[in-house]
Amino acid sequence: MKILFVYKGRYQVRDSITIEYLSSIAKQYNCKTALVYDQDTFGITDNVFYFPLLNRLTSRQEDIAKKIIKENPDFVVFLDGFNRTKWNEAINKKIKQIKNKIRTINILSIKKESINLDYNYTLIGEAEYTFDKFLKDKIFNSKDGIYSFSGLANLDMLPLADKFLFSKYIDFKLSYMLYTSKGCLYNCSYCEETIYKNEFGGAYFRRRSPKNVISELEKAKKDFDIREIIYKDSVFTFDKEWLKEYLTLYREKINLPYKCFAKAEVFDEEIANLLKKSGCYCVEFGVQTFNEKIKKEILLRNESNQQLLAAFKICDRYNLPYDVDHLFGIPTESVKDHIEAARIYMNLKFLNRIKTHNLTFYPQAQIYNFAPQYIKNNKNYQADFFSILSGEKNIININKIFIKYFKVLPLLPKKINLFILKKNRLKIFTYFPNILILICMFLVAIKNKDRRFLIYLRLYLRKILLSFQ
């Protein structure tokens, strides 16, 4: 039996890893697997350039449908997501029009009020657990319909993710992405992980054993000769005891440079020392805003500015570079908030990059209660944290200016930053084309010896070339 997975979006997110796990699960039942992948280059999920016109040239539904038919699969599997529902439905419709006998499966992690009945099977539940039940119980021999499963996969019992599925598109030697956990301990109002936790309960957050993660990396070294790792866990450093056990094994058996994500309120000198000694070359913190009232009441984040600054100072002492995530489009944010953030950022010694994101108002998320009315009125609203500015219309243009400025701020001496912030000189960034901002970001990467940015630039060029094939 041949199972074909269809996926649209960037690779550097959890959904792609989920599909790799689904492929490994299928192979356990002696199925052959394949992938048809639309990288959405220049599209809404592209975290470098969003150009709808170019996206239409590189992301054609007709081409995807033809590739699916050419593979001649027994089943076509779609993984529903926050930005893929309509695209999945359109592709399903197109392949049914060409070859009606193709059987399709839609996996829904989040229950919906209305379910599209054009798929042969709709599976509701955590993807890994649900798909395993579908194959193990041979539901594919049952009547077409909707099947719901309650349960969560044991992460240590899952087969290792099938990295070969995406290997045509991703150079794993250059950078290897993995998760050591699933879910998140925290409850940020805008985050996908909070939506999943609300759906599945607190048990949704769980972590793989250190030995299980090491076994994946040992296999990756053998299969792909990997040279660098990025841990995509929402918070890699939250459990100090797990971290100690894991990093001891990591230094002994893997010993490669890596990047990870941390949270200021659970970050201290001992953790910084563990990271630095084990090869961490950059740690990323979610700042989002320095307005504590907005942070607590709207974003539902509890770390204080004092905790953030303490974490940065610790990194400075250990010569450990750090990125910060800054969020635009937050309801009630102001120019004053952005200026205050800029004044803080310009004084950080080992600040590597300010990674700017745009708030996405997922209808399933608590943040949606604060969404501007024009978004609530738009039934076709679709956005991503890297594209399409959201927020009150009177601040969107201002946000565009600050996004450009924050991307180049680490390149500029403190005196220049102070000069820019005075007398409304920020307007100069209105006239900076995106290509100039990218050049400045490249110079920031050279100045700070930013390994990750240079790696991603190479991966992105590969993505563009493959999209035009």
Give an overview in words.
With 469 residues, this protein is an alpha/beta fold. The protein folds into 2 domains: 2-148, Rossmann fold (3-Layer(aba) Sandwich); 171-467, Aldolase class I (TIM Barrel), CATH 3.20.20.70. The chain is built from 17 helices and 14 strands. The strands form 3 sheets. A 6-stranded parallel beta sheet has the order 2-1-3-4-5-6, with helices on both faces. The two termini are 28 Å apart. The mean pLDDT is 94.
Features:
41% helix, alpha/beta, Rossmann fold, 469 residues, 17 helices, TIM Barrel
Brief overview:
The chain is an alpha/beta fold and 469 residues long. It has 17 helices and 14 strands.
CATH homologous superfamily annotation of the largest domain = Aldolase class I
**Uncertain stretches:** none
By DSSP (H or I, 4+ residues per run), the number of helices equals 17
- What is the number of domains? 2
CATH class of the largest domain: Alpha Beta
- What general outline do the C-alpha atoms trace? globular
Describe the protein's topology.
Blueprint: E1 2-8, H1 14-28, E2 32-38, H2 52-58, H3 61-71, E3 75-79, H4 85-98, E4 103-108, E5 121-124, H5 127-136, E6 145-148, E7 176-178, E8 181-182, H6 192-200, E9 206-207, H7 210-224, E10 229-231, H8 240-253, E11 258-262, H9 269-277, E12 280-288, H10 292-297, H11 305-317, E13 322-328, H12 335-345, E14 351-358, H13 373-376, H14 393-408, H15 414-421, H16 434-448, H17 451-467
Parallel strand pairs: 1-2, 1-3, 3-4, 4-5, 5-6, 7-10, 10-11, 11-12, 12-13, 13-14
Antiparallel strand pairs: 8-9
Helix pairs in contact: 1-5, 3-4, 7-8
